[in-house]
Design a protein that fits this description.
binds flavin-adenine dinucleotide; four-stranded antiparallel beta sheet; 418 residues; 15% strand; alpha+beta
């Protein structure tokens, strides 16, 4: 178990610096829907290998988040809220800016929670919101959007990562009453919320197109489907409280009603879902970068060497200046992409640009925060090493930085860049 940062230590003057208030007046959309994820997510607190310090941090800060941002929680209701007994609506793609703000603020406190929520909303709820029939939405999206069921999205396979079209998982149709059954065989790798989700959206080959490429469709897969199991759970560099694992599909039979969107439309749907998911990962990156800055500033102001605060040395001060500037630029790009999505405008390019920039800023900022802390940043007494480990994922998940550059360059140049 990690150590809690020292509460008083004269060698470490940052120990008395109070944590910055969350949600610093941010409500640009004017309609921030703060989903209360606690009810569903407190299982993660119990089950995952998060440490108590993180849990307390999370609960305390989420408490302040719900209290200050909603402005409508009275003290009597507070404990109910904290226990997660209310099922507030989450922003399952309906208000992308609110969703991005909520993920960024969670990432600022606890990256794992930010990723859990990002995967749940963008990847779990997103496809149902985008392509689900009213019946599918009622049956699967409503429980997910109310926080009662966690969602997951199985696209990646061991042989199909950046090349997600290389899916090997298959779905075979069998005739029968009510449109028959789909039988799904294969496996998925690196799936967030694996083992925690109650509903997964998975992609599978349902045939070949005329040009020989795979026809890919999407399916709703309840976790209690016979033949479904969770394989290995990954040991990761960071984001330890977020489950990442393998989905094993061994003759999983789902009714025809669980085909999500039209047959063969799964690839197109997931491209759209990934566009939205990039906003979420960009928001997570912004939150983690902001956490790094939040930690670095008071440390630089109060840690003394050579008889003066280290922040008064240009070498340190300019790191802080670069962090602050880049984070602000990243935030603007992410918010802009979310705003475009909110307005129903084309946001694919903006989302790729935002995710690319914000994730690389996040890695630089979290790295710089360790540098500002010196040796204390490299050890686990301070949270900055966690921010650094967590931030790296944002350059990989939902399309690596290289893939974002491909997407952006193709859009701008109009050429088939490989
Ligand atoms: C913690 C975590 C959570 C995840 N959650 C999910 C999830 O919920 N659902 C899901 O479906 N997936 C998930 N993923 C998978 C993630 O989306 C993939 O890891 C990612 O898309 C990269 O695929 P890959 O790992 O197979 O790497 P590869 O595709 O093998 O890439 C390896 C390297 O080659 C580069 N590369 C590949 N192709 C090109 C190209 N054409 N041009 C230039 N460079 C290229 C990549 O940028 C990278 O640097 C998760 C991964 C992690 C680590």
């Amino acid at each position: 178990m990690k150590k809690k940062p020292p509460t008083s230590n004269p060698q470490h003057p940052t120990s008395n610096v109070s944590r910055p208030t969350l949600v610093s007046g941010i409500q640009p959309s004017g309609r921030l829907h703060l989903g209360n994820y606690l009810g569903a997510l407190k299982n993660f607190v119990d089950l995952q290998n998060s440490d108590k310090y993180d849990c307390y941090f999370f609960i305390a800060d989420l408490h302040s988040l719900t209290e200050s941002a909603s402005g409508r929680i009275n003290p009597k209701e507070k404990s109910k809220q904290i226990l997660g007994l209310t099922a507030d609506f989450i922003a399952a793609g309906l208000d992308p800016l609110a969703s991005a703000l909520a993920i960024a603020e969670r990432g600022r406190v606890w990256g794992s929670l930010g990723l859990i929520v990002a995967a749940h909303t963008s990847l779990g709820c997103g496809p149902l919101h985008l392509a689900g029939t009213p019946e599918q939405q009622q049956r699967y999206l409503v429980p997910m959007a109310s926080g009662r069921v966690i969602g997951g999205y199985g696209l990646t396979e061991s042989g199909a990562g950046s090349d997600a079209g290389g899916t090997r998982t298959t779905a075979r149709h069998e005739d029968g009453p009510d449109g028959g059954t789909w039988v799904i065989d294969g496996s998925k790798r690196f799936i967030t919320n694996a083992g925690q989700a109650g509903t997964y959206i998975v992609t599978a080959r349902t045939g070949d197109k005329d040009d020989g490429s795979a026809e890919i469709s999407a399916f709703i897969l309840p976790a209690d489907t016979p033949g479904f199991s969770v394989g290995r759970l990954e040991d990761k560099l960071g984001l330890h409280a977020s489950a990442t694992g393998e989905l094993l599909l061994d003759g999983c039979r789902v009714p025809a009603a669980n085909l999500l969107g039209a047959k063969g439309e799964g690839f197109r749907t997931f491209l759209k879902v990934l566009d939205g998911g990039r906003i979420s990962i960009g928001a997570l990156a912004v939150g983690l970068a902001q956490a790094a800055l939040d930690a670095a500033v008071p440390y630089a102001q109060t840690r003394e060497q050579f008889g003066r605060p280290i922040g008064s040395f240009q070498g340190v001060a300019f790191m802080i200046a670069d962090m602050a500037t880049e984070i602000e630029a990243a935030r603007s790009l992410v918010w802009k992409a979310a705003w475009l999505k909110d307005k129903g405008r084309d946001f694919g390019l903006a989302a790729a640009e935002a995710k690319l920039f914000a994730s690389e800023v996040s890695s630089r900022a979290t790295n710089a925060a360790i540098q500002v802390h010196g040796g204390y940043g490299y050890v686990t007494d301070y949270p900055v090493e966690r921010y650094f480990r967590d931030a790296k994922l944002t350059e990989i998940g939902e399309g690596t930085s290289q893939i974002q550059r491909l997407v952006i360059a193709r859009r701008i140049l109009g050429l088939r860049i490989v």
